[in-house]
Amino acid sequence: MKKLYEIAEFLQGELKGDGNIAITDIQSLENAGPEHISFAVKPSLAEKVKNSDAGAFILPKSWPHPIDKPAILVEDPYVAFAKLAEAFAQKTFVPLGISPKAIIGKGCSIPEEVSIFPGVVIEDSVTIGKHTTLYPGCFIGSHSTIGKGSTLFPNVTIYNNCQIGKGVIIHAGTVIGSDGFGYAWDGKRHIKIPQRGRVVIEDEVEIGANCTIDRATFGETRIGFGTKIDNLVQIGHNVTIGPYSIIVAQVGIAGSTQVGSGVIIGGQAGLSGHISIGNGVKIAAQSGVSKSISDGQTIIGSPALPYREWLRQQSLIKNLSIMSKEVKALKKELSELKEKMEQQND
């Protein structure tokens, strides 16, 4: 439970109304009660705000409508909501220790302040930081490290010699460090190229369920600080992804591609190998990217094109049927004109 004025101070917002009311949680406009705080990101939600039972609201500073309940005015209500939701969700870590039903290898460095559940398997020479939670079925390969405060949900697999940073969240079923897809054809068979590198996941990365991140052939595959990856994403060997990027579900990134910082990749997009994606690039869902993209561009389509060029093409495609009718009519006119001229010549 928090006082509204404390929430206003936390969000660095402007308090309107009674700051001493007690708030127990954050909730949607439709489901909020008097003990909740809710939020609206734009004035068009004014009617929902008016009809909401929430005890207080987070609203944009530019809110043009009368407010009959306490409110906190902020620059970006959605960001404020995210910060407050995170604060309400945080719980004090209570270490459960190492379950006797977990299997721990030799030479591991594991502090007491961890929660390692039954069915976890940790191979030799693994280092795990304080306040880390490993749920049932997790496997940690030899010589790997997991930083302080990380959480691995059930059945996460970390192969050998991988590095997981601090505050990393990895959801169920994800595999980190499986072999990169590398083969050489000798005319008779595919010869497997040993994948001898590793994977590095930097601090505060979150990885969704059932993702796969391949280990490097040599060197490392690296996921940058604060990057967030959705479910069912495939990242190939020797890929580098810069900090604060967003990768949405079912994206596939082929080997040795370099992705810059602050990049957003929409769902089901595919990126070819050995290309470079610049900082701040936005790639629309289902795009097929086969060439390098410079900083700051927004691209869409397959093959991917700059957004404005794609719009022009779509406009032309939309009008193809009309253009086709016009061309047919013009051909008919020309044919009739030609026939008249031939008759006159006769």
Helix content: 10-25%
How many separate helices? 5
| Record field, number of beta strands | 39
Strand content: 25-35%
- Taking Cα atoms only, what radius of gyration do you get, to the nearest Å? 28 Å
Q: Can you tell me the number of structural domains?
A: 2
CATH topology of the largest domain: UDP N-Acetylglucosamine Acyltransferase, domain 1
Major beta-sheet overview: 12 strands, mixed
Low-pLDDT sequence parts: none
The CATH C-level name of the largest domain is Mainly Beta
Summarize the helices and strands and which ones pair or pack.
Blueprint: E1 2-3, H1 4-11, E2 14-16, E3 22-23, E4 25-26, E5 36-39, H2 46-51, E6 56-60, E7 71-74, H3 77-89, E8 97-98, E9 103-104, E10 115-116, E11 121-122, E12 127-128, E13 133-134, E14 139-140, E15 145-146, E16 151-152, E17 157-158, E18 163-164, E19 169-170, E20 175-178, E21 183-185, E22 190-192, E23 198-201, E24 206-207, E25 212-214, E26 220-223, E27 228-229, E28 234-235, E29 240-241, E30 246-247, E31 252-253, E32 258-259, E33 264-265, E34 270-271, E35 276-277, E36 282-283, E37 288-289, E38 298-300, E39 305-306, H4 307-318, H5 320-345
Parallel strand pairs: 4-5, 5-6, 6-7, 8-10, 9-11, 10-13, 11-14, 12-15, 13-16, 14-17, 15-18, 16-19, 17-20, 18-23, 19-24, 20-25, 23-26, 24-27, 25-28, 26-29, 27-30, 28-31, 29-32, 30-33, 31-34, 32-35, 33-36, 34-37, 36-38
Antiparallel strand pairs: 1-3, 2-7, 21-22, 38-39
